[in-house]
Amino acid sequence: MAKVTVRPARYADDQWYPSSPEALRAEVSEYIDRAPALDLPGKVIGLIAPHAGYFFSGHVAGASYRQVRGQEYETVVLVGPDHQGLALGDLAFADFDAWHSPLGDVPVDRELIGALNERVGLRRIGRDTEHSLELQLPFLQIALAGFKLVPILIGDQSPALMCELGVAIADLVRDRRALLVASTDLSHYQPYQVAKELDENTLQYVLKVDPQGLARAVASGRVQACGGGPVAAVLYAARELGARQAHLVKYANSGDVWEDKSRVVGYAAVVLTN
């Protein structure tokens, strides 16, 4: 029998998020519990959530995951940006059978990864030090149960490739109970009020479910979002799966929890429904 390979929890360091299972469960549960459960129309197809350290953005991420807590999904397609240069300008996935957090292991859907690789081509990464996907895992583990993970790391955020990826994802999960998750922060290191204005500009594309407009705005530098490409890909996929509405559940930036308002990072929780 082949040995099961497990991606370790590299950011469970008590700075990004707690290393203790008990502390992590309590903290993430509080973020989710504190957020209101909204009476959203239709079925939840996708989420957008931030990936900063939990002290800064956990309360925003919790607002997204509150809207799916207790729901059943067999597959979670998690798409995030490559901050580390690991993908070498490609679409990529970490070559593991499961992902670990202090809350336990989550199996990877190898079958779906293989099918996606045939459609769009995925670079295999043997050592993954990216945080944008890992930071979502404990929230998924608290909110959901029994799912398999499809973690996609995006090194090339070009508009054409984001469309191709989004359509491929939709085709492959159409007959599954699937949740799509895009991991992104918004503007980086701007004064507080400037950040709010920049983020409002970015979110206008998201709230119109306009992946093409968002992808082009990211490519041209008109908007700021490290995971703008992943968001566009998820918007394309969600739209193919019937999503017609995007709901801004919560917006904040690091200046809302930290005294320095001269260089903040923006965060948004968005839910996509049909």
Q: Can you characterise this structure?
A:
With 274 residues, the chain is an alpha/beta fold. It has one domain (41-189, 198-273): LigB-like (Protocatechuate 4,5-dioxygenase, Chain B). Helix content is 36%, strand content 24%. The chain has eight helices and twelve strands. It has helices at residues 21-34, 54-65, 110-120, 137-143, 159-173, 192-207, 211-220, 228-240; strands at residues 6-7, 44-49, 75-81, 91-94, 98-101, 104-107, 123-125, 148-154, 178-183, 188-190, 245-253, 264-273. Strands 2, 3, 4, 7, 8, 9, 10, 11 and 12 form a nine-stranded mixed sheet that branches. It has a three-stranded mixed sheet with strand order 1-5-6, covered by helices on one side. The chain is globular, with a radius of gyration of 17 Å. The mean pLDDT is 96.
Q: Assign an overall shape.
A: globular
Order of helix and strand elements from N to C terminus:
EHEHEEEEHEHEHEEHHHEE
Structural class: alpha/beta
CATH class: Alpha Beta
Low-confidence stretches: none
CATH superfamily: LigB-like
User: Termini distance?
Assistant: 43 Å
Rounded Rg: 17 Å
Helix content: 25-40%
By DSSP (H or I, 4+ residues per run), the number of helices equals 8
The biggest beta sheet is recorded as: 9 strands, mixed
Number of domains: 1
> And the CATH topology?
Protocatechuate 4,5-dioxygenase, Chain B
The overall strand count is 12
Quick check: average pLDDT? Answer: 96
The CATH architecture category equals 3-Layer(aba) Sandwich
> How large a portion of the residues is in β-strands, by DSSP E?
15-25%
